[in-house]
Each structure stands twice: as C-alpha cells, then as structure tokens.
Design goal:
Number of helices: 0
Order of helices and strands: EEEEEEEEE
Number of strands: 9
Largest sheet: 5 strands, antiparallel
Structural class: mainly beta
Length: 138
C-alpha cells in the first residue's frame, strides 16, 4: 500500500480509565483508513491497579455483534508509568472502512489513570462507490 498521508487522531482527551466498558471511538466518515498504531498518553498516573486497555473493531458502528475485545491492540499500563509516558502498540495494518468503528474500551479498570487516547492512521485510497455502506445523496 502506498502512503498518501499519515494522521495522529486524538480519539479521547483526558479519558478516565477508572471503570470498565466502552469509552468512545472513531469512525472513518468518507475514506477507509489503515490503523498503524494505538496509544495513550498518561495525564494522571495509576497508583494501585494496572489497567488493561483495548482497541476493538466494531464491524458496524454502534453494534457489539461479533466483536473480539482488543482485536486491534491491547495496552497494558503499569503502576510505574509516570505522567507523560506514552503506552503504545504499533506495526499494525488494520483497515477500517466507513461504517466501521474503532472503540476504546477499558477491560481492567485502574483507580486513578487518565490519559489522551490516540490512533495513528493513514487514509487508504478507495472510491466510496466500492463501499456498500455508503450512499451518495441528491
């Protein structure tokens, strides 16, 4: 695949990771994107329980049908990780098409952790006419 551009998207700012569950996500709106990396920049240090953070694909945005938690990436935060530390997973090639969604999920909650959640992507050249979930309006 040829790179057309690479973009670091801020998915969630100062996201608390103190309870489990889906916290938010990102959906390409027009052009497919290849996810190359996922990360969290620690803004409040964890003090007791090492959190486990999942980046998961929803085949249809808003639907949890058939998902596999952490199929894109799983980040393991340590109690020793300081404010400003970037926890990341890279060397990925997960393509999301318009209508699909990457969801940030806290699998194991910490007691104090907050962070800025990012995905690093590059647009994948494709025409919207080849995506059955897209419809041109009049």
């Amino acid at each position: 695949m040829y790179s057309t551009d690479q973009v670091d998207y801020l998915v969630l700012a100062a996201q608390a990771c103190t309870s489990t569950g889906d916290k938010g996500g990102w959906t390409p709106g027009y052009q497919p994107h290849v996810i190359r990396a996922c990360s969290i920049v620690i803004t409040t240090k964890e003090t007791t329980t090492p959190p486990v953070l999942n980046f998961t694909t929803q085949a249809t945005a808003g639907s949890n049908s058939g998902i596999s938690a952490g199929d894109i990436a799983i980040l393991n935060v340590l109690v020793a990780d300081a404010v400003g530390t970037v926890i990341y997973k890279d060397a990925m090639e997960k393509t999301l098409t318009p209508g699909q969604r990457v969801v940030f999920n806290v699998g194991t909650a910490g007691s104090t952790l907050t962070g800025d959640v990012h995905i690093f992507c590059e647009p994948a050249p494709e025409t919207p006419l080849n995506n059955t979930k897209m419809r041109l309006t009049a």
